[in-house]
Each structure stands twice: as C-alpha cells, then as structure tokens.
Specification:
Order of helices and strands of chain B: EHHEEEEHEEHHEHEE
Largest sheet of chain B: 4 strands, mixed
Largest sheet of chain A: none
Number of strands of chain A: 0
Largest interface: A-B, 14 and 19 residues
Number of helices of chain A: 10
Oligomer: heterodimer
Strand content of chain B: 15-25%
Helix content of chain A: 40-55%
C-alpha cells in the first residue's frame, strides 16, 4: 500500500474543511453586510414609501446637516393618531408616545472610531446622490439594514466617478 | 500664515483657542516633565538686554507647514503628505505610530499620543464635534484648522461662488486680540497674505535647512539688524 501523506486524509476531514470554508465565507460576508439590528419597533420603510412619504419627510436634516436625522416619537404619533391605529407596531409607537419616551432605535450604519472618518449627508444630498445609491431600494424593505458594504473602496470608486475629490483630509480629520 | 512679532504681546490667547478648537488633550504634570505635552501652538519667549533694561520677544510657534517637509518622506505608511492646497496633512487613520516624523521635524512640532487621554465630565461637553479625538498611538500636529477650511469650501461650493478671502480663519488667527496673525491663500496673488509675503523684514525659522516653511515672521523693528534697513523699506508696496 502506498503510504503517501495525501492518502491519509480521511473523507470526513474534507467535510470539516468544507464546513470551515463555508463558515469563514459567511463570517466575511456578515462582516461586509451585517444583519439588520433588532429594532424596538418593526418599522416598515416599504409601507411609508408606498404611501407617498418622501425620505426627507422624516429624515429632515439630510440636506442641511452631517446626520440625516430621525423623527422624534411625537412626530410619529402626529400622523398615527388617526392612521392605522389598529396595527400592533403603531400601537407600540403610541405607547412610547404616551409614556413620553423616545423609541430606542438601534444604529444601522457606523464607522469604527479608529477610521477617523466623517460622512456628511448634506454634501451628498446636495450633490444629487440619491438616497438609494447607498441605502438601497427601501420600498422593498422593512427596517433598515446595511445595504452597501461600507469601506473605503466603495467611497473612493464613487468619488472618482463623480470627481468628488480623493484627498485624505477631505473625509479623515 | 504671517505672524507679526511687532504686534504679538504673548498673551497666549491663540494657544487657548487652538486647544479648545482642536480637542487637544491636557496630558498632565507627569507627562509634561517627560516632554510629553501636546501643544499644537506654543509661545517662545526670547529675552534680551540687561537686568534693568530688557525686552522680551514673544514668538508663536506652530507647525511650519513646510513646502519641503522633512517629516513626510520618512513616514513608512504615507500618513503625512502635502495636499493639493500645499497643506502638510496628518492622516490619523493611516498613522501606525513609528514617530519617525517627530524625530525628523526640526521645529519639534509633532506630538505623539502616548495614552488615551480622557476629558473628565463635564469637560467632554466642550469637545469640538468637527475634530477627531485622537487615540493612543497616533501622531498629531497643527492642521491649520483644516476642518474650518473644509467647512468654508463646502459652504462656498453649495452656494456656487468662489471662496472669499476672509472666510477661512484658523482658531488662533480668529482669536488674536492684536491681530498679529494673518492667514490666507498664497496662490491668489491679490490676497492680503500674498502682498504681505513680500515684506522685506520677513524671516523664517531655521531657513538654512531649506524646509521652505509656510509660516513667516515679521521681524521686530528693534531686533538686531533691523536698523540696517533703508528707511521706508519696510512699508508695503
């Protein structure tokens, strides 16, 4: 019998190796596109957008400030005092409003502090970049999740395309 | 940047303004004793004359934003470079903390974060949100308040107009009560700074090293050698 080391590897080991490779791939994928964080209320972007609410209707600061901004619970309650009060999610929102408590929304997009990077919504909105370029088509989505893997390659590809400048200190300062 | 030593009184308002604007940590007495102070802008004092008849010259010293910056070629990760506007930029996220740049800076104007410095409550409330808080292992230095330059450029671009000359002022320039500091765009030949840049009484620090600093000083009128000038030669053209 030939005693080459290759033969010694049992078929089951290949299965282990395959499983490890799949897990590693999943790990990389989940790092690139993390799962949607658990939100306190199952907010449906799709329902609101299909009803004709514009992105800037709620994320009001997107054109004027670095942060796009989230509406307070009172603003939700303003519309939902009359609209779809029977839905369980809306009831949750109204309960928050009655308690005078803000909804503890979980952050979806964030950068590590070590990246020293600053993203400004206003410059992108004023530059005519559609919300869906980075956030995807939210008419198909419920709660928001990271749609575009956020890394410097993605940023730079778009910046080069639009001639938006690629100096380091433009974003890292 | 042009600094008029005739006008500077050494009041240190610029130093305080710089610290507040750029989230510069206070490293404490222990670090100060080990030359670990972080101070992007400081004032050097030079005394001259006798015991009874002396004069003191205060000279604000900051990163000289050299044209041929000695700190740049030694960085192994290109964390510092001269950008298209001629600014010597420090890119914090690239910096790995070799500290070669600090070794090579003849003006000693680069500062290393040996620790994660804290702002005890309620001091963190006064942190400038437009400037990063540098963490341990990162080199930092004067940026000519690049966040202000960027903000002004963004405002100008949004309104579709060129940048006005007086629109960008680093914190030190804005604060100086004697207006001893002048900041502007040297590339624009009509700007105040470009006209003042030809002043005959200008000097640069360690000129013999050929670093071509972009910070110049207007020598004091009572400084040695100043009287050798022709009368009227110090007037602007």
């Amino acid at each position: 019998m030939d005693e080459s080391p290759i033969r010694r590897i049992q078929p089951t080991r290949w299965k282990y190796a395959l499983a490890a490779a799949v897990l590693a791939a999943l790990g990389v994928y989940s790092r690139v596109r993390p799962a949607a964080p658990d939100q306190p209320v199952a907010f449906a972007h799709s329902v609101h957008l299909k009803a004709g609410v514009k992105c800037a209707g709620c994320h009001r600061d997107a054109a004027s400030s670095p942060q796009a901004g989230l509406p307070g619970v009172k603003e939700c309650a303003l519309c939902h005092a009359k609209i779809r009060t029977e839905s369980p999610a809306v009831r949750q929102v109204l309960a928050y409003a009655r308690r005078g408590e803000e909804i503890p929304w979980q952050r979806v997009y964030s950068f590590p502090a070590s990246a020293y990077v600053r993203f400004r919504h206003d410059m992108h909105v004023r530059g005519g970049i559609a919300c869906s370029t980075c956030h995807g088509d939210l008419r198909q989505a419920g709660t928001a999740r990271v749609w575009k893997p956020f890394n410097m390659g993605v940023c730079l590809t778009c910046h080069r395309e639009h001639g938006a400048g690629t100096e380091c200190e433009q974003c890292h300062y | 940047m042009l600094i008029d030593l005739n006008v500077c009184t050494g009041c240190s308002a610029c130093v305080v303004a710089c610290r507040a604007e750029n989230n510069i940590p206070i490293t404490g007495a222990h670090e100060a004793a080990r030359n670990g102070t972080i101070q992007w802008l400081h004032i050097d004092r030079a005394w001259s004359g006798g015991q009874d008849d002396f004069s003191v010259e205060s000279r604000p010293i900051t990163c000289q934003q050299c044209d041929a910056a000695p700190c740049e070629p030694v960085c192994p990760v290109l964390a510092t470079y001269t950008n298209s506007e001629g600014l010597c930029v420090q890119v914090y996220n690239r910096c790995v903390g070799t500290r070669y740049c600090a070794l090579n800076c003849p003006y000693d104007q680069r500062f290393f974060n040996w620790f994660d410095y804290q702002w005890p409550t309620p001091m963190e409330v006064q942190l400038n949100p437009d400037v990063s808080r540098r963490t341990r292992g990162v080199m930092e230095k004067c940026s000519f308040c690049s966040q202000r330059v960027l903000a002004a450029e963004r405002a100008a671009r949004s309104e579709g107009r060129p940048l006005r000359e007086d629109e960008v002022q680093p914190a030190c320039v804005q604060t100086c009560p004697a207006q001893a500091l002048l900041f502007g765009d040297l590339a624009d030949p009509d700007s105040r700074i470009a006209r003042a840049w030809r002043h005959p009484r200008l000097e640069t620090l360690l000129e013999e090293l050929g670093t071509l600093p972009r910070v110049r000083y207007v020598r004091r009128q009572d400084a040695p050698g100043a009287e050798a000038l022709q009368p009227g030669a110090e007037d602007d053209e």
